[in-house]
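Most newcomers find our protein records easier to grasp once they have seen one. Sequence and backbone structure share a record, each on its own labelled line. Nothing more is needed to start thinking about how sequence determines fold. As an example, a complete record with its sequence and its structure tokens follows.
=====
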Amino acid sequence: MDKTALSEKLQKRVVEASAIVVGLLATIALLSWRFDFWRLAALGNDYIPMAPSTAWLLLLLSGALFLGRRRPALPTTLGFAILALSCTVLVTIVVIGRTLLEFELPLEQWLAPTSAQVGDIPAGRMSPLTAGVFLSISLALLCQLPRFGQRWLWRQTSALCALLTLLTGLAVLLSYWAGAPLLYNGRTIPMALPTAIAFSLLGSGVLFNAGSDTWPIALFAVRTSNPPPTLLHRFAKGPLAAFLVFSLAIATVGGLLLKKQITHSRQESQQVLATISELKSAQIASWYTERQDDAELIFHNSLIQLQLRNYLTGSRSSPQTDEIREWLSHLQQKGFRRLVLFDATGKPLLRAPANMPLSGHDHRSELQRILSADTVLITDLHQEAGGPDTGPPEINLNVWIPMGARPGSGTPAKGALLLQIDPRNFLYPLIQTWPTRSSTAETLLVRKEGREVVYLNELKHRSGTAFSLRFPIDSKYLPAALAARGQTGVMEGLDYRNTPVLAALCAIPGTPWFMVAKVDQEEVYAPLRLQAWKTGSMILALILATALGVSLLWQQYDNQLLRRELALVQERGRMEEELRRMNEELETRVLERTAQFQDANQELEAFAYSVSHDLRAPLRAMGGFSQALLEDFGDKLEGEARAYLDEIVLGSRQMAQLIDGLLTLSRSTRGELRSDRVNLSEMADRIRSEIERSDKQRRVEWQIEPGLRARGDERMIAVVMRNLLDNAWKYTVGTANPIIRVYTEPEGNEHFFCVTDNGAGFDMAHTGKLFQPFQRLHRQDEFPGLGIGLATAQRIVHRHGGKIHATGAPRQGATFSFSLPFGEDLKGEKP
């Protein structure tokens, strides 16, 4: 049995389309670098862009593939292919060497002259993974050169290298879609998203260009003996389509599962980080409150205040200095760096420990505030300059307590007790400890100072930073700056090292501080990347297994294709004969039903004519004789006789009008619809002129939108417009400044023509009666009429396949809207 390959035309289209799209992607990337819009070409604010070197090589390789398919015999094509492959191999070897030996490539710096970074990754540099894939696709194209491409073994090698390129590109795309891009959030330069798209397309093109007799394309070839063209056209793409469907389903399900796992892992990591942040924030707030409570306890202790007041004023009943010093020493052991008792002049009288020198910080301004205050004063963490005997600067948290005062009396204190807290004893260790094993996690304590955010504690990855490390408060991605601006919760950003981190932000209650608990994204997402590799490998393995399975199934049924086709042909002939017979019967039934329908219409028309003719004659007689009676003997009629005769004349006229209305209503549902081009604006203006001539005394403002066009039966549409405009004219009688508008407005996917007035209006609760024959919402003495016009308009609009509805309110006017979708083929014209 001969092996019939896939359609040559299909292969050519795939190869050329792939080459063209890859060339366009590379060109767009180069233009984005040329005009400094490279972030836009990255297809994501947090993604790296395609490097210029990558774009140039893709442009060369796609050009070589396109020319090799279009003009394979030209010497220029061969020369260009060799040039493209040589440049690709040279650049990729240098990039791989740069990664291994850690040196800079001047060519890349010249092509992308920018110091911008995406996280820790410099923009404009080629990924080592990209370089490896370039070697694979270069080998694939090399094996397709005329010298090698005539042998199946070389073309099979080319197909395998192209398949490797395709699968790598798809794996990277899958990782991006799942939310865990391969190699991202690390130090290694990842493959850019546009590059992965380009490699997937380029791999597909080279794979098809290798020939339909190479694996895996050969799995989807058709084996038949002399198959008819219809069979080849129908089944040559069948296995390939099945493989693509199954592969897409596997990739989608696997990607969704991977995305779900990654989302769960991220949420778990974020929850742990938020819990640690909240726990530490609560501990710091509790510690801060305890220090404040200790000070308040001393301040409100009447005995202590009395004893120290006596001591500070030199009273004879004052306690001994040793007793106060002993009390201070006992108090200092509760976790304070030093305690100092000042008098009202600012002179330090006692301190504990006694041998600890004072800092060189000037406390006079704080002392003056506390002497006049009637409460405890806690200063924020600050750096105090060392004195001549104290050594380096100190970081303190000062608690001032007015001493010798009477709390609540408003009298100035006689002195003040300073409690200095060393944050390194409890606060900093609490901040710096982390409850789980982590090499990058740390907690930051920051506060806002003017237009800067200040780090208050020493950092894990940088020394000497407390009160010296500052950043602008408007830093866009800095977690500390975001926390100082009031943002809370878990977010991704760049820390003080410009390293991507996952950070939990919160404000510490009762303090001016903000907590930032962070960990490097490289550490957090390392398990996610590993999971992405495993899931991606499993998906690719399943796709390959699907390819083999589809191929085996296709080969199993390959020998039965011809018999099935012949059976289908026979069955089709039998069904066509049956269909022909059924069509003949249907035509006969249609003719019968049409004749019956025509007979019914003729009977209806005969009945309508009989009604109009037979009823009009006696009505005319009644009206004529009543009128003659009025004219000849009206002056002789007395009492209620003349009124009764007037009622007879009026009733006969109304009966004639009702008969006319019934005839009009019946005609609106008969006859064949014509497809006319109707200018509704001109029609409305013409009807307006006729209405105004009927009552020249009335003044109404007409607003008719120009250019309203539709398609339908012009005579019937004129009946609709006349009924709606007559209604608007009638119900604006007695309205000050009456206005009637004709316009169009869209509703969903349809255009509705609207007639609006500001007249009597109606209650929307009675909308259902509007379009019913002889149903009226107003009394006859208010607005005369029969209730036939709107019912006629509705039937005509429905015959055109349109809709009609009304909105309004009592004494606020009404709007009637209708659509005419019948024959909407006025291209380029306003509906």
Observations:
- The longest helix spans residues 561-633.
